[in-house]
User: Fold this.
Amino acid sequence: MRLGQRQIEIFNAVMIYKSTMAAAESLGTSQPTVSRELRELEKYIGFELFNRFGKRLTPTNQGQLLHKAVSRSFVGMAEISRVAVAIKQHNAAHLRIASLPAYAETFLPLVAERFRKTRKQVHLSIHSLEEVPLRQELTTQIFDIGLTEGIFDSGEATGGLINLGEVVCVLPQQHPLTYKRVLQPKDFEGADFVYFTQEDPYRRKIDQVFEAEGVSRRYCVETTTATAVCSMVASGVGVSIVNPLTAAHYAGKGVVLRRFSISVPYLLNLWRPAKGLRSSYADQFIYAMREVAAEVVKKMEGI
Assistant:
């Protein structure tokens, strides 16, 4: 026996509708068929997906974990269906962008606002993902543009860079270091520092700077996104160094910005599919990104 697509569809429907009867109605089949397929699925995978209390089903912890993976596959299938409809209708006015959360929350809203001033007919779909799943999603080739922090090395993609200036020091209001205009590595000696996780490429670059200078910071917390780092800083948890996009977004919101004496350029890595149809709207959106990026660089030079 092999795991079948129909069994996965039934499992997903039961998780969504919370009952075998409602799931059967949504799939155009019978309740006994749904119950039988669920049992066969559980037998195949070797663990129970639901706790059964009479006619009531409650997902087990294992069932909930499996459904997270199943949900991602159905989202992907839904996106593929939308792409197929667009191709059939020759509808090029749909731009799909995959991005890190930091860009989706701070950079892309500015770009989207500028882009749509003259192209309101274009439907924008922006998918926000962390670095590792983002790279995996880009291999599906259903996106027109991808924005990553690390270099995306793939034979099925072409790349490019957008210069966003340099990383920026972020401090809580009233912090003693706010009295300096430019901060040197030695200024952070013994300071409570909000870290990115070890997987972050700019975490490694910043760590190398402090290690080379022999400076020890006090580890207080680490988190995965620049927005989370700045929120920690705004709450007074500690100080940090982040990308200029997020720094500019948080300026004046409980966060004070200062330049770092060591130059650490911040580059946004741009992904485009190497195969298939290329949208002219993607070219125009990238042009708008470069315009906004140049404005961010100019703004940050004034801090």
Summary: The longest helix spans residues 61-88. The chain has a mean pLDDT of 84. The longest strand covers residues 157-166. DSSP finds eleven helices and 13 strands in the chain.
